[in-house]
Amino acid sequence: MEANNDAGGNNGGGNERPVWLDSLPDAHKNNQSFYGFKEPAQAWDKFDSLLKAEGKTIVIPDEKATPEELKAFYAKLGVPETSDGYEFDKADIEAEADKMFREVMFTSRIPKREAKAIHKAFVDMIGRGKEAMAKQKAEEERIEKESIDEAVNTLKDTWKGDTFKANTELAHRAFKNVIAWAGIGEEEGKKFLEESKIGNLQIGNHPVILRLFHAIATKISNDSIGGDRGGPGGEGSDEEKAKQRFPNTKFKQT
Q1: Is residue 240 part of a domain?
Q2: Which domain holds residue 48?
Q3: How many domains does the chain have?
Q4: What is the pLDDT of residues 4-22, one digit of tens each?
């Protein structure tokens, strides 16, 4: 009995090219996946699926691809034609940062959907960074405030009552005079006293430095310091001067 090679309409037949493939479009005439079907009807389901997928197929361009082919390829991937073509959620970031991000996404040929997700992660990262910096700054200010309060109250234990105000003002005068004698400009000297720190405390607020310059002032003649030594009741004992020097400081009551 002669075997039926086409039974069941499967494609398990030989690898010879069937003649009916000549009737197909050129793109499919030599498609070997159809070689096992002796009749077109047997291959219809496979052929129909292939035609439906044809329009969705993305062919990766090679080094010989033209600019038009490359443009069409990136368009299918979802890459915009310019960096301004990206659409991101509204975010509180600087215009320069937004522009830089768009340029990086565009030059990297990142599709719109993926770029939007990356942008959200980028914005969230910036937000967390700002929050961390704000917390750090607040903590530094709190520590510095506590340090100033502690320094002032330490001096108030040594310099009681009006003596604290008078001696503090006298030390500040000595600061200014020594800086002037050294040929340092007033603004430069002020910046040094305000920005230079010992631990968390400005040099100009440090109790040891204040006591040091107060001692210097008392060893120099009254004329060299520049007038009133700041005794109780004088200009140097004015409580407002102490308040200006140590703003927002809670002085210990004596």
Answers
A1: yes
A2: 13-54
A3: 3
A4: 444 334 444 457 888 888 8
Beta strands in the chain (DSSP E): 197-198, 201-202
- With the C-alpha atoms ordered 60, 66, 56, 78, is the resulting torsion angle positive or negative? positive
Give the integer Cα–Cα distance in Å for 97 and 102.
Answer: 9
In angstroms, what CA-CA distances link 192 with 44, 90, 186, 196?
88, 43, 10, 5
Contacts of 42 (CB under 8 A, 6+ apart): 6, 9, 11
**Distance set, CA 169 to CA 152, 163, 245 (Å):** 13, 10, 9
Is the pTM higher than 0.85? The answer reads no
Bridge partners (DSSP) listed for residue 202 = 197
- Residue 254 placed within a domain: no
Any idea which residue has 């040594």 for tokens? Answer: 158
Alpha-carbon gap, residue 135 to 223, rounded angstroms = 48
Both 138 and 172 in one domain: the answer is no
pLDDT digits (tens, 9 = 90+) for 113-152: 999 999 999 889 888 998 999 999 999 888 878 877 887 7
